[in-house]
């Protein structure tokens, strides 16, 4: 089940929130847990073992944290075992098949692939579990003594599948006591509808252009169409994930939880360093808090700083999936960030126009590495983007892009506009509630119509 689906909007939301608001306050955690487990079970209906693994992982975390406090002598051992449980689970489901395929390819042993299906949300709830264990181990927080509250923290359906990644201290107070009023519900509903619109009305149509370019074959693309398609993917992945995050935050407000912001207009950045402070903020914070700083951060000199940055960005690439293109993507980002840190980053920050121009081209190029899993095809695609450096110089003179530009230019204009702060500032300055309600109704009606017509795609980050 996904947020941008008619069953979720017209069946799950009315039934769940009807129960949630009717019951006494002390029962809301129980209702939220039951609703979240039902949500996950439906999402994993074809692979019920994924639901079992999810439940086991929550119990392991809860018990490990309690035992760390009860038996301080074995604190480190318990922590290591619990974290290894998560790492091994993640490796088996996310990377084992890839490694076996590579071993088979090198050794000639034949097909060793296990065809393992990735459990939905495992990358996100694994990181939340590890962060909780690390915070208890370091004495930053006390272990939660209520299994109900802990399982609610991990399983909250609004952020379970694709984040934001929420640490326990961020919601601890609200797990014990949260207030819900009409203003919060209205605010949350408005944020949810706006996120739904970004996903259904912007991300999905632009994603069609990227899918069409892949279907045509990169070797058959003209240079303008190649650039058009990778810009389309850049907008798709942004509005897809940003839209999901807004829907999650909106649902959180309706539940009485204030989830952390996950995006801060990343496409207006002047450097890649700034971009990654604004993109998937909770993932960046997680790696900084639980990997970069424990490794020493930038406190031990340049060599150790470079080493720590390399580890973080290699892990960031691997976290997104099993594939050489993800490793390459992480390595490329590491190199870019290193150059910005020690060579030209300050210059770009001082000359905003140059920084924006630099990012205008760099953002889609890095997303191309992220999106194309076949390195040979990635090379072909880059010869279309830069025809004078390859065999595709002819591709610059073709006019196939005109048909697609005519079809998609309204979505590109909207994509550029909503990548800036302008429309959000305009919305904040509207003082007439009826105008806001009308706008939200139009967005909601248009989104529902598109969903009814089957014009929908799964969220991209579900695959990670």
TrEMBL record:
Keywords: Acyltransferase, Cell membrane, Membrane, Transferase, Transmembrane, Transmembrane helix. The keyword Oxidoreductase does not apply. This is MBOAT family protein. One of its GO terms (cellular component) is plasma membrane. Its main location: membrane. It comes from Amedibacillus dolichus. It is a multi-pass membrane protein. Belongs to the membrane-bound acyltransferase family. It is found in: Cell membrane. InterPro entries: Ac/AlaTfrase_AlgI/DltB (IPR024194), AlgI (IPR028362), MB_O-acyltransferase (IPR051085), MBOAT_fam (IPR004299). One of its GO terms (biological process) is alginic acid biosynthetic process. It comes from the Bacteria.
């Amino acid at each position: 089940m996904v947020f941008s689906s008619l069953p979720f909007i017209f069946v799950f939301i009315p039934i769940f929130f009807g129960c949630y608001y009717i019951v006494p306050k002390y029962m809301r955690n129980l209702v939220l847990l039951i609703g979240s487990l039902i949500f996950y079970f439906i999402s994993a209906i074809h692979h019920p073992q994924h639901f079992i693994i999810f439940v086991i992982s929550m119990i392991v975390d809860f018990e490990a944290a309690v035992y760390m406090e009860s038996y301080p002598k074995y604190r480190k051992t318990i922590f290591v075992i619990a974290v290894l449980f998560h790492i091994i689970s993640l490796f088996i489901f996310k990377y084992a098949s890839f490694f076996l395929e590579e071993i088979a390819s090198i050794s000639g042993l034949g097909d060793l692939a296990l065809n393992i299906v990735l459990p939905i949300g495992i990358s996100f709830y694994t990181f939340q579990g590890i962060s909780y264990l690390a915070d208890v181990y370091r004495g930053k927080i006390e272990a939660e003594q209520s299994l109900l509250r802990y399982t609610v923290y991990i399983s909250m359906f609004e952020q379970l599948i694709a984040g934001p990644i929420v640490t326990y201290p961020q919601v601890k107070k609200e797990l014990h006591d949260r207030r819900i009023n009409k203003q919060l519900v209205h605010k949350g509903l408005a944020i949810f509808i706006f996120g739904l619109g970004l996903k259904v009305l912007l991300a999905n149509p632009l994603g069609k252009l990227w899918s069409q370019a892949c279907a045509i074959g990169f070797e058959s693309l003209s240079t303008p169409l190649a650039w058009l398609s990778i810009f389309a993917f850049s907008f798709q992945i942004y509005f897809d994930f940003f839209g999901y995050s807004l829907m999650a935050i909106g649902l959180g407000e309706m539940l009485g939880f204030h989830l952390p912001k996950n995006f801060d207009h990343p496409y207006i950045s002047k450097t890649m360093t700034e971009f990654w402070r604004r993109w998937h903020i909770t993932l960046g914070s997680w790696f900084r808090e639980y990997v970069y700083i424990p490794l020493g951060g930038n406190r031990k000199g340049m060599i150790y700083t470079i080493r720590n940055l390399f580890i973080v960005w290699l892990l960031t690439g691997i976290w997104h999936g099993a594939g050489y293109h993800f490793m390459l993507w992480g390595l490329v980002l590491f190199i870019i960030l290193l150059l910005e840190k020690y060579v030209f980053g300050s210059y770009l920050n001082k000359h905003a126009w140059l920084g924006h121009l630099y990012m205008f081209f760099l953002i889609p190029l890095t997303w191309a590495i992220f999106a194309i899993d076949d390195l040979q095809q990635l090379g072909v695609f880059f010869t279309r983007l830069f025809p004078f450096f390859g065999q595709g110089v002819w591709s610059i003179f073709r006019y196939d892009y005109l048909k697609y530009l005519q079809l998609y230019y309204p979505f590109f204009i909207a994509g550029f506009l909503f990548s800036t702060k302008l429309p959000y500032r305009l919305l904040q300055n509207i003082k007439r509630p009826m105008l806001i309600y009308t706008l939200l109704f139009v967005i909601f009606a248009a989104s529902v119509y598109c969903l009814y017509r089957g014009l929908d795609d799964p969220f991209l980050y579900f695959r990670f």
